[in-house]
Specification:
It contains 9 helices and 2 strands; from the N terminus they run αβαβααααααα. It is mainly alpha-helical. Helix 2 (44-54) links the parallel strand 1 and strand 2. It starts with 10 loop residues before the first helix and ends in a 22-residue tail after the last helix.
Length: 208
């Protein structure tokens, strides 16, 4: 997993960051703990939403003393597209047209609890559960084969219609190069080598 800060990025830099995460062989968890200053960008909350959706999981802290919010804008419904020409909202609500239509009706700042209810973030824990929720999310991710789960995450990043780019970044690269040829799969104690063996495979968790 990667630990990156997006404080101070402008709109173009956010788009570049999003494109980077699409093709990265790493897991990303977005943590929104406090609202940013309005001078972050000209339209901070809509760009912030794009950063949240670029990660594999998105968490917003629901704390009365640390208000946080995101906002939706037409830019989120057509300007920021991925390698298959779909927006992150379309991918997030793939196969759920009603949820996408409902999201288009949301106006103004969206508080953490409402963001979770509408499916815009993975979880919105309160301040009492925040540390435990984040810790559990990280431990869950680290408990799986880093290569295999990275491949599945990559598949989900490229849901929807296929293009040449999605076939390369979302299918071929993820499975052929990141998984099947690596020690976590075919090494002495890799998952494929140990298939049917009562012993558990041993993974190198520094792989991705």
């Amino acid at each position: 997993m990667s630990d990156l800060s997006v404080m101070g990025l402008d709109a173009d830099e956010v788009a570049a960051f999003d494109a980077l995460t699409d093709a990265e062989q790493r897991a990303y968890i977005s943590l929104l703990e406090q609202a940013l200053d309005e001078t972050w960008t000209l339209t901070p909350k809509q760009e912030l939403a794009e950063v949240l959706w670029s990660a594999d999981r998105a968490y917003m802290l629901d704390h009365p003393d640390q208000p946080s919010a995101i906002a939706l804008h037409p830019v989120n419904f057509g300007v920021h597209t991925t390698y298959n020409s779909m927006t992150r909202l379309q991918i997030r609500f793939f196969g759920e047209p009603d949820s996408l239509t409902k999201a288009a009706t949301l106006h103004g700042p969206i508080e953490p609890s409402d963001a979770e209810r509408c499916g815009l973030v993975t979880r919105a824990p309160d301040d009492l559960d925040w540390d435990d929720e984040v810790r559990i999310a990280e431990e869950e991710r680290l408990s799986f084969s880093p290569d295999a789960l990275t491949g599945m995450e990559q598949n989900l990043r490229f849901a929807g219609q296929e293009t040449c780019d999605t076939k390369v970044f979302g299918r071929l690269t993820a499975w052929q190069n990141w998984i099947f040829q690596r020690p976590n799969a075919v090494g002495e104690r890799g998952a494929l080598t140990m298939y049917g063996d009562p012993r558990s495979p041993m993974f190198d968790f520094n792989r991705t």
